[in-house]
Amino acid sequence: MNASPNSHPFTTPVTGAVRIERIAFNAFRMATYSILVAATLIFGIIFVKGSETIFRREFPFINVTFLTGSPETLHVFEHDGQKHELGDKAFRAYLESHGNPQVADENYVYSAGGIFPCIVGTFFLVVGSMAIALFVGISAAVFLNEYSRGGPLVEMLRLAILNLAGVPSIVFGLFGFGLFVLFAPVFGPAPDPSHFSLSLGFTYLNFSGWGVSLLSGWFTLAFMVLPVVITASEEALKAVPKGFRDGSLALGATQWEAIRTNVLPYALPGILTSSILGIARVAGETAPIMFTAAYVVRDRLPWQVEHASEVLFQGVMALPYHIYVVSSKIPQNVYTERVQFGTAFVFLFLVLCIALSSVILRSRMRARYRW
Amino acid sequence: MIEVEHLDFFYGKAQALHGVSLKVQAKQVTAFIGPSGCGKSTLLRCFNRMNDLIEGTRIGGGSIRIQGVDIYDPSVDVIALRRQVGMVFQKSNPFPKSIYQNISYGLELQGVRDKSRLDAVVEKSLRGAALWDEVKDRLHTSALGLSGGQQQRLCIARAIAVEPAVILMDEPCSALDPIATSKVEELIQVLKKDFTIVIVTHSMQQAGRCSDRTAFFYLGKLIEMDATQKIFTKPAHQQTEDYITGRFG
Predict the structure, then answer these.
(1) What is this structure's pTM?
(2) Among the three residues A113, A148, A165, which one is the final residue of a domain in this structure?
(3) Is there a single domain that holds both residue A146 and residue A163?
């Protein structure tokens, strides 16, 4: 028997290895926790500061003007011994009702009013570019996974996709600017003398570019997320058991019939899941749209156009670009902070909503097809 | 019904079948037996050209005629061929759709939209596969809710729904328990009245129980083919005897 009660055959002696083990364990743990800290800080600050702009103490508890109005210039001034902060329209109305007095006002652009055009613009950009990216991406994945039989060409395609994924977003922006904004073809009744133009017999194809427009933005963003969509779609297609294809083909289905009826429906939930990542990127990137689709300010909303054809050929305001503008182009102070954090808050919330709706769509589809 | 002449078949550079010649009689059950890798499944998958889907496969020589037509002739439409030569796979592969949709799938591919006709074919096929009484109350529930044996009979029902002339079965019972196996075997006996059946099996007993003629393959060659009873009682070759008595394989 041992004399000391703490001493038994399995006592751990504190050796160097044990000390290093503790240090290593704590280092790994701290590294992991730092992620939590960063996430909490980002979401916490934007939530706390943003809610001051978004929420109101009295009915209707939400700052309706901020969500439904257009950006205005904020005027800060003193009159009759009182301090006023008014948007452009209210400022002019105030002056008129007080006999147009001379006031010394400070003004800050975009800091009053709301961000409705940005919300709408981002929504349009996301829907259009994801539609293009999903169509092209799924088609490419079907070709690579179902039809292609390997070989150097396919290897080259895969390498191209991999490289596309590594291209910085600003390069996509410039690529989109060069190809879509300046060069892409438009139909015209007559040849455009200042650009290359092709006669199609009944009409002309003028390579005069699409301008800064939704269309240019859609294609630029679509090409940016294409690698994500293709890779996701291929993974999802691979997960569909081979037996479903064989079963279809053995019943006399053509390859496309087998894919359409017995491969794609089961792969779609997986494709959508991974495309959520793409949605967040499309909604969030500033660089690809700053040359191709985004306006600093635009009074008209996308549907306020004279001809339906103009819908595609107009630029829009967008949340990420608006955040960039209000945080780098106007002074930083207590008046401008509201629109900065408010916009960031709305932006995060919108991305969350889009992601959530994909998750719901996916779980509905999953419930239909299970194996 | 099916005539194979001097067939050589390759996976890339590896030759899987060496000069195989045999005849499959109509409305009989023909069993292909032999150890793993002997080429019996490969030959089966040549009959509906499912091997076309595997990269690098090719016919090196010889021919396969079904109902007198060389099925590897360029004029043959592989889709039409597969409607005439149905297949049941080793691993049962019902589609993750309803039982009804599984059966109607083949007809819908042919453009049949008439609801009453589809209903009739679904019932007829399920009765034909001895599954009707078990599933008639849940036709519109997922086929994946069925037991393994039921799933395999569903796959058989799916194959007969398009009324092929030939049904190929690639080890249809290898994943089934003995009771489910005996049900499928009974079914095969009923089906041979209407269909020509070729079955690949690893089970000597199964070949003995349900086939009329048996072909024994070894290392890509047809060793012998004869009436099943003869193969199992008086095989002409020593190798066949060794295999069926379990001395190798």
Answers:
(1) 0.83
(2) A113
(3) yes
